[in-house]
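Sequence only, no structure available. Ideas?
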Amino acid sequence: MLKLLSSNSRPAIDIVNIVAGLGLFLSPWYLAYTGEAYAAWNAWIIGAVVALIAIGALLAFREYEEWANLVLGLWSIIAPWALGFAAVTAAVWSHVLAGIVVAVLAASNVWFIHNRPLSTA
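Reply:
I predicted one. C-alpha cells follow.
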C-alpha cells in the first residue's frame, strides 16, 4: 500500500484523482440527482476543479495542488451536511466516496513530500 502512495507514483495518483473528479462531476446525471440544486452544483464544481487540478499536476507538479485537493476532498465529505442535501442518499455517497479518495491521496502526497528519505542508498 505504501508503494502505491509513494512519491514515485504521483502520475498514478493524479490519474485516480482525475477519475474521482470526473466521477463526482458526472454523478448528478448517472445517479439522477440533477433536481437537487445544491448537490448537483457542488458535484459539478468540485468534480471539475479536482479533475483540472490533477491534470495540472500531471503537467507540472506543485505542492499547493495537493493542498487544494485535500481541502476540496474534505469539503466534498462534509458538503452534504453543510449544504443540506444529506437526505439525498446518492448525492451523499458520491460526495463522501469521492472526497475520501481525493483527500487520502492528497494527504499522502503531502506527507511523502515532507517525509521522504534523504538517501535511498
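Helices lie at 10-30, 37-59, 63-82, 89-114.
Hope that gets you unstuck.
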